[in-house]
Amino acid sequence: MRETKGVLMTELRKARRMRTFKPATILLNNGHSTLSCTIKNISELGAKLAAHNFLNIPDEFDLRMSDGSKRRCSVRWRKLTEIGVEFL
Q1: Buried b / exposed e across 18-41, counting CB within 10 Å, b at 16+?
Q2: Most exposed of 10, 17, 59, 60 (fewest Cβ within 10 Å)?
């Protein structure tokens, strides 16, 4: 459990995420289209990404990290400027 503004919250994540601020690229249409984003936090199981607009991003995509590695992602939750993804 963690405390936020005096309220105890139950942590639902299976792995602890590490805060970060790393650039990444969402690859769409087999890499023919891209969207720049920022990885806000990450674990071995998933990440939170930030960008200007995630409305037209599909539920699954490839994410290229700043080190050149690629991960297949599935969207678990979505807001206009943030999404939470699970690594497949």
Answers
A1: eeeeeebbbbeeeeeeebebebbb
A2: 10
Q: Note the pTM of the prediction, 2 decimals.
A: 0.81
What tens digit of pLDDT does each residue of 24-79 get?
999 999 889 999 999 999 999 999 999 999 999 999 999 999 999 999 999 999 99
Neighbouring CB atoms inside 10 A of 55's CB total 8
CA distances from 12 to 6, 27, 80 (A): 18, 28, 22
Structure token digits, residue 56: 């037209």
Residue 41 near residue 48, CB atoms below 8 Å: yes
- For residue 9, the one-letter residue type is M
What residues pair up with 50 in beta bridges, in sequence order?
38, 82
